[in-house]
Amino acid sequence: MPESQERRFLVDGLNICAKQWRSTGIPAIALHGWLDNAASFDALASALPELQLLALDMPGHGLSDHKPASGNYAIWDDLRFVLAIAEQMGWPQFLLLGHSRGAIMASLLAAAAPERISHLICVDGLLPEPQDPTDFTVQLGRYLKDFGQASRGDKGHGSFAEAVAVRRAVTPMSDVAARLIVARGSYRDAAGRVFWRSDRRLKLASPVKLSVAQLQATMSAITAPSLLIVADQGFGRWQSKLPLGLMAKFEVHTIVGEHHCHMDAQALEMAEWIRSFLSRNGVEEDED
User: Fold this and answer.
1) Catalytic positions, please?
2) Which among 16, 178, 195, 229 has the fewest CB atoms less than 10 Å away?
3) How far is CA 141 from the centre of its chain?
4) Model pTM?
């Protein structure tokens, strides 16, 4: 596996950490899933030498700073961090690769700033499940209640293996994948107990959710060539059946595996699909 370089960016007063593979190639930013981190893309980075891949630890995840007490983790708030880091990299346009929550963020950003995104690649995620607009106040109430309650402390785990087992219980994944995520997303105290680095507020309710009409507007605004890879045992499989022609712009492939199969052997098959997709859609590598 090629060596990655640790990167650090300062955005809105927060340190945002990342892993970068290669200093030449197609500029690409990778966005991980909920409670994951940049290590989620180790396998794909190795399998896609064409990409100058920058995998971010989003705020509150991995090695990146948590947001201040007044902050929240609504997905649209994190989009500014992606654009700010692209500016610091000197990338006026770049490929977006997202998994799960990161794929949702990638779709929203590709719609809101289409001139910045050359290609959109989503892995087992694309859009959030739509909400009936009449449930708006109920959702907002959940958000207010969650943030009004005292946050419980992290009691930690007795060993790294125990933390890995807990992570696998939350989201089914291979032992190899879980170990990569936990290694970057945890730390040990002086007594040897393992604690999560992620911000506990990531588990709180979002202030609002999007309606079908808003999702339609999102899909209509995406102009970049777009690819969706769906895991047949994952979380995003329902999205390949979205109504109202939302998927018309996407090339869709289904792969055998669970939600995090992009971290395992399936990464090689995904990389072939991505490479073919890029070839058909006129990618020119950055020579800088």
Assistant:
1) 100
2) 195
3) 26
4) 0.94
